[in-house]
Structure formats: C-alpha cells, structure tokens
Design brief:
Length: 428
C-alpha cells in the first residue's frame, strides 16, 4: 500500500487467462499447508501432552475470533482489488457494531445484522466519495473515517443508550442493552461421534476429529454466512467478467477505461461492498460474541484484518489462512494460558528449522543462519521452562502475526494501481 497519490500506470491489456491457473495453484498450496500444519500440531500434541492444542473447543473459539478479522480482511480485499486503499476498515467495523447493537435490542438480531451492514456501507461510501470523486489521499481519508466513526458512535451511544427504555433495559453511555441470540447450528450425531473419537487422543485421528468437531458444533449462522461470502467473493472476483473488470480497475484503470469499463462505477461498488463486509464483521462482534454493543469493541480488528489480507497476498484463500492463524493463537492464549502456549514453542522450533533449511537450500545463507539461531534459542527456552509467563502469553497472537508477515513479505504483490488517483480520460 502507499499513501502517495501518483498517476495511474500506462495502458496494458488485462490478462484474463492467467487467473484460473494461479487460483488452482493457490488452492493446492493451501491444502498442502493445512495438511502439513495438522501433522505438525498432532506430533507436538503427542510429544507435549497438550491435548487442548487442537481440541473441538479450541477450534470453535479460534473460528469465532477469526470470523470478524476475516470479514475485515475480505472487505479490504474488495476495496484494494479495485485500487482503493481502505485504512478505514476499523471505523466501518465500529459503525457496524453500533448499528447492530442499536437495532438488535429494539427489534430482532436479524434486523440488527442488516443494520450493521448498512452502517458499514455508509462508512464505505464516505470513503469512496472522498477518494474516488474528490481524489483525497486514501490513507488520510481512511484515518478520517476511523476518527469520525469513533466520535459519532460515542455521541450516539450517549444519546440513545443512557436514558429512557434503553437505560432500564441495561444500557449505559458505553454499551447498548443486550440483544437476543442468533441461532447456532450443530450437526446431530456427527458432533457426538467426533467428540468420542477426540477423547481417545489417537495420533492424527483424534486431531482430525477435534478440528472437524469444532466446525460442526454450536456453529453460529453468521459464521456460515461468512464462509459463503469467502467462497462467493472468490468466484465473483476470479471467475466472472464482473470480477475481471473490477480487478482491472486496481491493476490499470486507464487500460480498463479504454476497453469500455466504467471505472468510477466499479470502484464505488467495490468500496461499498467493502464497507458492508466490515460492518458485518462489526455486527458479528455485537450480536454473536457479546450480544451487545460495547465501546471499543473492535479492538483494532480492522487493522489486523488488513494484515491478514496482506499475508494472503490479496487473495481469499490466503486471507482465510491469515485470519485463522490469528484467531487460533488468540484463542490459545485466552483459553489455555501459559502451559499450552509453552507447547506451541516446540512447534515454532520445527517451523524455524524448516525455514532455515529452505533458505540455505535457496542459497540465502544469512537468512538461513538467522532462522537456525532463532530455532536454537526457542528450543533452549522450551527445554529450560515449563510455562510461558503470563505477560508473554497475552502477546502471543500479535507476535505470531508479525512473525508470519515478516516471513511471507518477499512473495507479496499488491494491485499495481492500488492507492493511485484516477481521473476519467487521463489516458487520452
């Protein structure tokens, strides 16, 4: 991403034929990484005896923490694929939490969910008008949206929740009254069978049962909607003419305009969808995680979603992996504390050792040596201690995120015209 506003790149025809091939490679790589990660976690669980590493409860908690981050990252993907940097995701999520809490307690959580999406779209349109129509720097506009959303929701919360029926129902200037719960989904029979397999603690078999059990037990309907949105976004952006035109606006809007694409319309549509997805992420926090709007509820998840999007190389599959990784590490430190996080150190040793071997194989000797030294230091830490101190446990998800981003930064390629000012007819 860039905060500078430069001219769009010279015309070049979009290459539609490359998308399916690249997408197939990405899917195969994702499946391979997931299988390898499951094997490593299973081995670490057996060696350390930390059975909570991949239990059904751990997976369910990780999924609940990953969904709002994933939706924020998906929102950023839509916007940036059209060439608009969206730093304002945090603010749009804040608007979504307020809208969902405000309407959710007065009527039904379903209407609250719709209202949260609508408030997010409103924030997205503010960002679109500033950046697309008036050419304001994308970073400046995004920061302004964040500040505006925070101030507006704080004022509205004091206005609507501090008195009258809202106060009698449990509201106050910093939170709304509680809303009803949205339905959960549990697959009957399968959930109990997987739970029974998990209790045997067999290598890999119980690990797979724990992971699948967390995916079919007490699954929020909003989580299912989020999964469908990921699949739908991938299909729409990489398998349809609409998606090709939208992505061409982020790669080379001048070339897209020369082929008859209404660049303004596609950019507006992308940023509006981006705002709606971020608002849905905020509504998830208000209606699923806590059943109420709380001031400061997003906790920086909009920024973490951007980090997950970058880790995923601006693609839905990689983004889902990044969000899942953060959700898993966050759930690990919230549910199980220092003992289980200590077991994770052994997994980190293996990953760093593999990275060192790969770097040395690729003749990147300095990077390989640094990775090997880090692996040795973490191994010493693991062998000399029995538990990770609580101060370090709380930082686990952030350390994991920074580590993964630093290791994956060399293969990233953002859309070429991302953050650049576009004016109709500038290529003539």
């Amino acid at each position: 991403m860039t905060a500078t506003m430069t001219d769009a790149p010279p015309p070049a025809a979009p290459k539609a034929g490359n998308a399916p091939k690249g997408s197939n490679r990405s899917l195969g790589m994702i499946l391979l990484i997931v299988a390898g990660a499951l094997l490593l976690v299973a081995a670490v669980r057996v060696i350390t005896g930390a059975n909570q590493l991949d239990s059904a409860g751990q997976v369910a908690a990780a999924l609940g923490l990953a969904v709002p981050i994933g939706l924020a990252g998906l929102a950023g993907l839509w916007s940036e694929r059209a060439g608009v940097v969206n730093i304002g995701l945090e603010g749009m999520m804040i608007l979504g939490t307020f809208g969902a809490g405000w309407i959710g307690w007065q009527s039904s959580p379903w209407l609250g969910l719709v209202c949260g999406i609508g408030f997010g779209v409103l924030g997205g349109l503010v960002h679109a008008v500033a950046t697309i129509t008036f050419g304001v720097d994308h970073i400046v506009s995004g920061v302004a949206v964040n500040l505006l959303a925070l101030g507006a929701t704080q004022y509205l919360a004091k206005l609507f929740f501090a008195g009258g029926n809202a106060a009698e129902a449990g509201g106050n200037p910093k939170q709304s009254p509680p809303a009803d719960s949205l339905p959960d989904v549990t697959v009957p029979g399968l959930s109990d069978a997987l739970s029974s397999l998990e209790q045997h603690h067999w290598f890999l078999v119980s690990d797979i049962a724990g992971v699948l059990g967390g995916l079919v037990t007490n699954l929020s309907v909003v989580t299912i909607i989020a999964v469908l949105l990921f699949v739908g976004s991938w299909w729409l952006l990489w398998r349809t003419p609409f998606g090709l035109r939208l992505r061409s606006c982020g790669e080379n809007p001048i070339a897209a305009e020369s082929l008859g694409v209404n660049v303004y319309r596609y950019k507006y549509a992308a940023v509006a969808v981006s705002g709606g997805l971020a608002g849905l992420g905020g509504a998830f926090l208000a209606l699923v995680t806590s059943h109420t709007y709380l001031e400061g509820q997003t906790g920086g998840r909009g920024y973490i979603g951007l980090a997950a999007m970058i880790f995923g190389n601006w693609r839905p599959g990689g983004l889902a992996m990044g969000a899942g990784l953060f959700g898993y590490s966050d759930a690990l430190q919230l549910r199980n504390g220092g003992v289980t996080v200590h077991a994770l150190l052994l997994l980190l040793v293996v990953l760093l050792a593999l990275l060192a071997g790969w770097k040395m194989y690729r003749k990147a000797m300095w990077q390989g040596v640094i990775s090997a030294v880090m692996a040795a230091l973490v191994l010493v830490w693991y062998l000399l201690t029995d538990e990770v101190p609580s101060d370090f446990v709380g930082a686990t998800p952030y350390v994991v995120t920074l580590l993964v981003l630093s290791l994956s930064a060399q293969r990233l390629r953002m859309p070429k015209a991302d953050g650049m000012r576009y004016r109709k007819g500038q290529g003539k």
